[in-house]
Design a protein that fits this description.
This protein is of the alpha/beta class and 283 residues long. It contains ten helices and nine strands. The radius of gyration is 18 Å and the shape is globular. The structure holds S-adenosylmethionine.
Length: 283
C-alpha cells in the first residue's frame, strides 16, 4: 500500500475508534441470521433493484435509533428512499402516528414499490412521494424545515467516470463515492434538524470526515464491518476501488482469512449551532 493510502487508513481508523458508540462485525454473519432480518420478514414487503439487504436493514436500524434520539420529529425526509423499507419498518416500530414522511427518489419504479409497501403496512397516509434528483431538492434552501429528521442511504460507492448503467444508479456515488453525501452535508440544515446517514470507508472518508467534524455534532455512530458485496465485486467497480485506495481516497482491507472487507458507518448528526446562537442560548 502507498504512503498516502496508509495515512488515509489510519485517519479513518482513528475516527472510528474515537467516535463510534458501537461496532458490529458482520463478516461471518449471514443476513438471514440477524435480528434485523427477522423484523423485516414479519411484513409483506418488496424490494427494488437495489440489491443489498445488509445496507437496507442496517439503515433501518439507524433510522429507528434516530427516531429515539430526536424526540417525536414532525417530518422525516428520506433522500434516495428506494423501496422505503428502511423508513417504513422504523416508523412502524416507533409508533409515531403523527410523523409525516417525504420519500424522494430519482427512479419512478422505486417509488411505485415504495407506495405498495406503505399500503401493505397501513402507512400510506403518512407518506408523500416525490420523484426527482435529491440534488435539485437540495438546491432549494427551504425544502427542509426545522424539527425534521433527514435520513439517507445515498448512492455512496465510487464508480469510474461516465458510468451510466441503470443497475448502478442505486450505488453510483460519483468518481469518489462522496458526491451525494457532500450535497447533503453541505446543505444549510435549519436548527432542530437531525441527520441519519449511511456511508463508509469507500466514500472518500478523508474528505467526508473533516466536513462532518466542522459542521456537525455526532450524536451517535455505529461502525459495521461487512464483506464486499454484489456491487463492489463487479470487476470494473472493484478495480476502480483498488486505484482509489492507492490515492488514499477509499479504505478497505483484503487479507487471506476475510477477503475484501469495508466499514459501513451509520451516523446521527446535528448541525452545530452558529457561535452567535450559542452565546444567545447561554444567557
Ligand atoms: C443505496 S440505494 C438505497 C435505497 C433504500 N433507501 C434502501 O436503503 O434500501 C440509493 C437510492 O437512491 C436513489 N437515487 C440514485 N440517485 C438519486 C438521485 N440523484 N436523487 C434521488 N435518488 C437517487 C436510487 O434509485 C436508490 O433507490
Amino acid at each position: 500500500m502507498s504512503e498516502v493510502s496508509t495515512k488515509a487508513k489510519n485517519y479513518f481508523s482513528n475516527f472510528v475508534t474515537n467516535y463510534s458508540n458501537e461496532f458490529d462485525d458482520y463478516t461471518n454473519v449471514p443476513i438471514e441470521a440477524t435480528e434485523l432480518y427477522a423484523e423485516y420478514k414479519k411484513f409483506p414487503l418488496d424490494l427494488t433493484h437495489f440489491n443489498d439487504l445488509y445496507d437496507t436493514l442496517i439503515y433501518s436500524r439507524l433510522i429507528r435509533k434516530a427516531l429515539e434520539l430526536q424526540k417525536a420529529p414532525k417530518f422525516l425526509v428520506d433522500f434516495g428512499a428506494g423501496s422505503s423499507v428502511p423508513t417504513l419498518l422504523a416508523i412502524k416500530q416507533s409508533k409515531l402516528a403523527d410523523l409525516k414522511a417525504i420519500a424522494v427518489d430519482i427512479d419512478p419504479e422505486a417509488l411505485k414499490v415504495s407506495k405498495q409497501n406503505a399500503e401493505a403496512l397501513g402507512l400510506s397516509d403518512s407518506y408523500v412521494f416525490k420523484q426527482g434528483s435529491m440534488k435539485s431538492f437540495l438546491q432549494n434552501s427551504t425544502f427542509i424545515k426545522g424539527e425534521t429528521l433527514v435520513v439517507s442511504n445515498p448512492p455512496y460507492i465510487p464508480a469510474p467516470p461516465d458510468t451510466s448503467d441503470y443497475h448502478l444508479i442505486p450505488i453510483n456515488g460519483g468518481v469518489d463515492g462522496a458526491d451525494y453525501l457532500l450535497d447533503i452535508l453541505n446543505y444549510e440544515h435549519p436548527p432542530g434538524t437531525t441527520l441519519a446517514l449511511l456511508w463508509g470507508s469507500l466514500s472518500n472518508p478523508s474528505k467526508v470526515i473533516p466536513l462532518i467534524l466542522e459542521k456537525y455534532d455526532i450524536l451517535h455512530m455505529n461502525a459495521i464491518r461487512i464483506h464486499f458485496g454484489n456491487y463492489t465485486k463487479l470487476p470494473h467497480i472493484n478495480s476502480h476501488l483498488y486505484d482509489l485506495r492507492e490515492k488514499g481516497m477509499v479504505v478497505f482491507d483484503n487479507d487471506e482469512i476475510n477477503g475484501e472487507t469495508q466499514i459501513v458507518i451509520g451516523s446521527i448528526l446535528r448541525p452545530k449551532l452558529p457561535e452567535n446562537n450559542k452565546r444567545w442560548i447561554g444567557h
